[in-house]
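Fold it.
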Amino acid sequence: MSTLEHLSHNLREGLDSLAEGWQHLWQKTRQAITRFTPSDSDAAEKSSGSGQSYQWGVLSADVFETDREIKVQLEAPGMSAADFQISIDNLTLNIRGERRYQRDDTQGQYHISERAYGRFERVVPLPAPVDSSGTRATYRDGILSITAPKAPGAMGRRISIEDAN
């Protein structure tokens, strides 16, 4: 194999690996990618500091199921409990909120600002029906934790086997 063929082969393998990596990343995070709609005041303040306002961000979630409940944890740093509105509709958990732009320094300017600010809605599919009246939510250290008891029909139960003899 000539040097040019070897280089071409390595380049193709590198591009294939890169494409595979992006595809894997997209499959893993596509539901976590969330659109943020900046309020007019946030957009004006942010654009005066960095010249750019990001409208997309990642709000990653973990969904954990036990026999009796479903737990959802959502990463949403820089917010407070009052910034969220939570609702459950069928097998869908809807989390709406607003991350407000805050600038601590009045001097200088940002050169990099990659965080998204504004109103958002994150939809998390649930693996089983839940009883929304018993659902609890807490927010601590940038993590929104939601625990919902399963609906009575969705809870697993042990089935005894009768002897047919």
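The first strand starts at residue 33 and ends at 37.
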